[in-house]
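In the design runs reported in the main text, the only information available to the sequence generator was the tokenized backbone. The following block is the verbatim input for one such run; it is reproduced so that readers can re-run the procedure and compare outputs position by position.
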């Protein structure tokens, strides 16, 4: 990425938001409302401030359910490029759901963010416990050419960007957040020492970036950067020529990654899954906890897949199962949330198998009615979408021979 002409460090203020984790969803949403009230006020008051809302549109949707009156200014800030939202609807666990759920999650996230003004064209995956091999292919399918992530990258990668390749050959340029999504927090940890600490950060990361501008992720879980951030940055930049400290520019993640053209191609290419623990623990224990949630999720996805195939083939109605397709967040179905919060958190697939079972029944009723099947006569429907040989038996009441009627 071409180095910013007016900065040595590009700073990305953001927050990482679990919809539920060690507290239930409604507790976290109350905190989200307070955080975003403050962030939106600061964006309104300071045109140089930027904020990236975690890559998931559901966070802003949760906020607007409580603050519907803020929709107009959210739309204005998103359209102006100062508040970055999307492209996903939620940040899901890529190994805890099927591929269609990932695709649908990205589709719905893009739609939700687009309705508010714009979709961030970066596949931002800050805290997933590893990444599926097909993610570059899925992102490319939605026209997204960039990703940014932390966990799972193999130790062989020694620069801040690499080319991530899917099994089908699709690739995305991937910004490697090798120091996590809070890499710039230490720069602002001690008041009055930003010049010193920013110089240390630039020196420490120089081997990763060379002469390019360093990316500093300024944010952490469930909070926003300090209220005096922009005042400190402006004061620092004013003094930088005299102190020799690196200049800082505040941006959204998409604003930085999509600005200009790539000056230096990445030499590292990574194929397939990202499952390395080299610089970020993948928390493998999540695969063997909350198995009831995982089983319910799998059953709901299977039922949805069957119903949606039938729906696509034979129905003019849209019964797509968005509630289930978007309930695999990275702290829910994997089970990394606390046991104290789990009983108050609805099962991600609760009730989701009901709609899929009713779609085939509704279609069969319409089909048999159109075929004028006698009332009460059995109907045999093979669920596979290809020719098959099978047998079926059913008890018949009344007298006389009974002959099957095939549709």
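Verbatim output:
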């Amino acid at each position: 990425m071409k180095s910013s002409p007016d900065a040595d460090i590009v700073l990305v203020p953001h927050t990482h938001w679990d919809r539920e984790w060690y507290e239930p969803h409604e507790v976290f949403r109350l905190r989200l409302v307070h955080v975003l009230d403050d962030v939106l006020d600061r964006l309104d008051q300071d045109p140089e401030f930027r904020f990236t809302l975690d890559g998931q549109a559901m966070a802003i949707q949760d906020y607007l359910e409580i603050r519907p009156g803020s929709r107009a200014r959210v739309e204005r800030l998103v359209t102006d490029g100062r508040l970055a939202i999307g492209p996903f609807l939620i940040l899901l666990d890529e190994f805890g759901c099927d591929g269609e759920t990932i695709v649908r999650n990205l589709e719905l996230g893009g739609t939700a963010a687009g309705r508010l003004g714009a979709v961030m064209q970066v596949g931002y995956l800050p805290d997933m416990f590893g990444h599926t091999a097909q993610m570059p292919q899925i992102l490319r399918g939605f026209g997204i050419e960039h990703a940014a992530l932390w966990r799972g990258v193999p130790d062989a990668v020694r620069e801040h960007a690499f080319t991530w390749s899917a099994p089908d050959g699709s690739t995305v340029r991937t910004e490697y957040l090798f120091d996590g999504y809070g890499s710039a927090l230490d720069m602002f940890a001690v008041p009055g020492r930003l010049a010193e600490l920013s110089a240390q950060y630039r020196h420490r990361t120089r081997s990763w970036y060379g002469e390019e501008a360093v990316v500093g992720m300024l944010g952490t879980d469930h909070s926003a950067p300090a209220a005096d951030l922009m005042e400190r940055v402006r004061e620092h930049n004013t003094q930088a020529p005299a102190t020799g400290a690196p200049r800082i520019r505040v941006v959204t993640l998409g604003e930085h990654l999509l600005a200009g053209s790539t000056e230096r191609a990445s030499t590292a290419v990574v194929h397939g899954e990202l499952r390395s623990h080299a610089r970020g623990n993948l928390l493998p224990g999540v695969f063997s906890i909350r198995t009831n949630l995982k089983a319910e999720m799998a059953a709901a996805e299977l039922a949805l897949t069957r119903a949606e195939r039938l729906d696509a083939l034979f129905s003019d109605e849209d019964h797509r199962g968005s509630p289930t397709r978007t309930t695999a967040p990275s702290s829910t179905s994997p089970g990394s949330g606390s046991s104290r919060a789990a009983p108050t958190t609805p099962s991600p697939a609760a009730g989701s198998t009901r709609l899929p079972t009713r779609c085939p029944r509704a279609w069969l009723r319409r089909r048999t009615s159109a075929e004028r099947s006698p009332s009460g006569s059995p109907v045999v429907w093979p669920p596979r979408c290809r020719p098959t040989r099978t047998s079926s038996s059913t008890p018949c009441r009344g007298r006389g021979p009974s002959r099957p009627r095939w549709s």
